[in-house]
Every structure is written in structure tokens, then in C-alpha cells.
Amino acid sequence: MSNIEKFVNDSIANNKVVVFSKSYCPYCTKAKKILADLKVEVFIVELDKHADGAAIQDYLQTLTGQRTVPNIFINTKHIGGCDSLTAIYNSGELQKLL
């Protein structure tokens, strides 16, 4: 297992909520705001500011089939992106997951 795979897998395994993000992405900002409004502790990896950001994004695509950000995990389960998070938030499912 590469250092990138270990970092991603450990991040997902050891944090209740993980958001792989880019600091300038409006969808990432929206997703992080939803989680912040719920006062949830979130482990955020800003791929554009991380030395291995491109490699992490490549591995996330292999892991999830999703290349876009945000790439969100809750309780080790891949949620998807901002639209998926918004949908489960609006349905009340997000609150149950947390």
C-alpha cells in the first residue's frame, strides 16, 4: 500500500466525517457549511494545498469512482459530493448518520 493510499484510508477510518476538498471550490464551501452548521467535527483535506493533492485525488477516483470534489465520507461510508450531501441533509438522513 502506498503512502497516499494509507493516508486516505487512515483518514477515512479514523475520522467520523472526512471531506476531501479544494479551498476555492464553491461546492466544497457549501458542503463544509452544511456540516459546520450541524456542529460536526470534520476532518478536511484541502487537496489544492496538500503536497500530494493530485495523487490523493487520483486515488479517490480509484476508490470511489468519483474524481470531483468535495468527496465526502461519513462513518467510513462514501456519501459522494455536495449534491448528495445536500439531498441527505434535506431528507433528514444526514442527521441520522451523524
Tags for this model:
single chain; 98 residues; alpha+beta; Glutaredoxin; four-stranded mixed β-sheet
State the low-pLDDT regions, or none.
Answer: none
Distance between the termini: 30 Å
CATH fourth-tier homologous superfamily: Glutaredoxin
Q: Tell me the CATH architecture.
A: 3-Layer(aba) Sandwich
For the sheet with most strands, the description reads:
4 strands, mixed
Fraction of residues in helix: 40-55%
In total, the number of strands is 4
Strand order within the widest sheet? 2-1-3-4
Q: What pattern of helices and strands is seen along the backbone? A: HEHEHEEHH
Structural class: alpha+beta
* The CATH topology: Glutaredoxin
| Highest CATH level, the class | Alpha Beta
Task: Tally the helices.
Answer: 5
Give the percentage of residues in beta strands: 15-25%
Number of domains: 1
Rg, Å, rounded = 13 Å
Shape: globular
What is the residue-averaged pLDDT?
97
Keywords: Disulfide bond, Electron transport, Redox-active center, Transport
GO cellular component, one term: cytoplasm
Domain Glutaredoxin: 17-79
GO molecular function: glutathione disulfide oxidoreductase activity; glutathione peroxidase activity
